[in-house]
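2024-03-11 09:14:02 INFO receiving multi-entity request
2024-03-11 09:14:02 INFO entity count = two
2024-03-11 09:14:03 INFO echoing inputs for audit
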Amino acid sequence: GAVVSQHPSRVICKSGTSVKIECRSLDFQATTMFWYRQFPKKSLMLMATSNEGSKATYEQGVEKDKFLINHASLTLSTLTVTSAHPEDSSFYICSAGGFGNTIYFGEGSWLTVV
Amino acid sequence: DAKTTQPTSMDCAEGRAANLPCNHSTISGNEYVYWYRQIHSQGPQYIIHGLKNNETNEMASLIITEDRKSSTLILPHATLRDTAVYYCIANPQSGSRLTFGEGTQLTVNP
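2024-03-11 09:21:47 INFO inference complete, emitting structure
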């Protein structure tokens, strides 16, 4: 079946630095990918829609200048958390549409800002 | 997307069938019922989806009522590895913007 892969699975960064998370569709092309954030014991919250070749669409309350999204190819979207702070520590998950319009999710990326 | 309602938690004995209910009384005609599950510290895993007919795959069965206002996900022989949060989502198949509720924490006990 379709596979969506994220990298890195875990990352620790210092406060004030930026960190990039990659999301790849491994055996299909995805013109649209989605980025979610999940805090402990909470459900997934949609952050933004990543559109290949155009600007991302952000959900209300999500700072576009802080969470930079780039979708430069049909198989890769990246989320960059800029000037990270401890409150940005979270589980970040991406998704993409696969065969039969079923949506598949990546393994997730744990971000810890110290 | 139609709102879905699920019990917060459920328990099931290992080897028995796990029946997870979902109410989606405001579902519209073009919305499918999707089920995903999330095992701790992992991304959500697709289980099954359907429109109005019952569906079965290698993981589970999906029973949708005739009026489409509710559905039940059935794991026929639950194992300890099926312990997870199960999410029921109503979504148009052509749309891929999934909105997650709180889901049901299923705990399979030995």
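2024-03-11 09:21:48 INFO post-check: The mean pLDDT of chain A is 92.
2024-03-11 09:21:48 INFO post-check: DSSP finds no helices and eleven strands in chain A.
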